[in-house]
Design brief:
Length: 395
């Protein structure tokens, strides 16, 4: 077992002066100073991060290179626990009630179940080959897991802790998202360049939406009207995340036509980026057509919406940045530089902070969303990828 956490605690030593004259001066000044004390009590001093109240809860960070989860206390922004999981873990999802977390393990082809109160493994569920993206229905009854190497989705009964159905989808499914009402699951198929739409009542594919070349990151707007889809672009010979080799990624053009060389997803930027995508596409779910394209950083692969749907945050791992998008204007309003090779993002429930995993710097960037600036970097294990927020009330 690898040992990778080292905790350092510092103690503050306070010394007080003593003496007759000091005591007398302190007594006389206390009357004048009492007004200041009362003022400080009624108007707390903001923290160094510009906030008057500390956030609560923990972040679960998946360390691909160490087969573990780092548990970050969001108040101290330090790792407080480590959880060993399966081989080559990718992503994590938390149940709606916050009591359980589920980690997809690529090489061991299973899902680790974590009790979030104790940060202990309490079970394992077999899945398909190289399980990656995972999304849980809002009612907490079922999880849907994208199996990259077996080209299917496992439907997991979370009451019985077992797979109850397997749905064949496109080639190399990776990203996965579920509609707010839980009626549809959207699966981004990296190599076949499409989004598989699954009806959760029947667990059957309803339709397939063209999504450009190498779609990966996918999110749903809170009102359920739009999909936000990022992707790698043209990356011939990209290996599967579990280490297996792969054929060149194929895909469809904007409206489903086969792309010409250099005209795949993000065509406006293909020449300078060697086929790597820089655009996030907005898909109207009602028409299943592309409603817009927004240029972000290089290879946007993780997407998340704010709680009210007013902002979308896009992680681009090829340019080490997060793009902040105003959904009303569909424009990038800010760009935040983070660590090297960012891969995942999670928002705090109150919408104040974003947490971004950086695979090459082995840390998590903490972004204050009021200023769109990085206010801390928390060191974690090796190769952090997926991450999720666990609210304090559920622990």
């Amino acid at each position: 077992m690898r040992k990778y956490f080292a905790r350092t605690f510092s103690r503050l030593s306070l010394r007080s002066a003593n003496g007759t004259w000091f005591a007398l001066a302190l007594l006389l000044s206390s009357f004048a100073f009492s007004g200041c004390v009362n003022n400080l009590t009624s108007n707390p001093i903001p923290s160094l991060k510009g906030e008057t109240a500390k956030p609560s809860g923990v972040i679960y960070v998946v360390n691909e290179g160490e087969d573990s989860i780092s548990v970050i206390d969001v108040a101290s922004q330090k790792v407080v626990a480590g959880v060993p999981v399966g081989q080559f873990p990718h992503y994590v999802a938390v149940a709606p009630d916050g009591k359980r977390a589920y980690v997809t393990n690529g090489e061991s082809a299973d899902i680790s179940i974590i009790d979030t109160a104790t940060h202990k493994i309490i079970g394992t569920i077999p899945a398909g080959k190289d399980p990656q993206g995972i999304s849980i229905r809002p009612d907490g009854r079922f999880a849907y897991v994208a199996n990259f190497d077996s080209n299917d989705v496992s439907v997991i009964d979370l009451g019985a802790n077992k797979a109850v159905e397997t749905i064949k989808v496109g080639t190399a499914p990776q990203g996965i998202a579920i509609s707010p009402d839980g009626k549809r699951v959207y699966v981004a198929n990296l190599r076949s360049g499409e989004i598989s739409v699954v009806n959760t009542a029947t667990n059957r594919i309803e339709s397939s939406i063209p999504a450009g070349t190498g779609p990966a990151g996918i999110g749903v707007s809170p009102d359920g009207k739009y999909l936000y889809v990022g992707g790698h672009g043209q990356m011939s010979g990209m290996p599967g995340s579990s280490g297996s080799g792969g054929a060149p990624i194929q895909g469809k053009g904007m409206m489903g036509s086969t792309p010409t060389p250099g005209r795949d997803m993000g065509a406006s930027d293909q020449g300078s980026m060697g086929g790597k995508n820089k655009d996030m596409r907005i898909i109207d779910i009602s028409t299943q057509q592309v409603a817009g394209m927004i240029t972000c950083g290089v290879m946007p692969i993780a997407v998340v919406s704010s709680g009210n749907g007013g902002r979308v945050y896009v992680v681009s791992h090829g340019s080490d940045e997060v793009s902040v998008i105003d959904t009303a204007t569909r424009k990038v309003t800010a760009t935040v530089t983070v660590g090297k090779n960012p891969n995942g993002i999670a928002l705090s429930p109150d919408g104040r902070f974003a947490y971004v995993s950086n695979k090459d710097t082995n840390d998590v960037s903490v972004i204050d969303l009021s200023s769109n600036s990085v206010v801390a970097n928390a060191a974690v294990g090796k190769g952090p990828r997926g991450l999720a927020y666990v609210n304090a009330k559920s622990q």
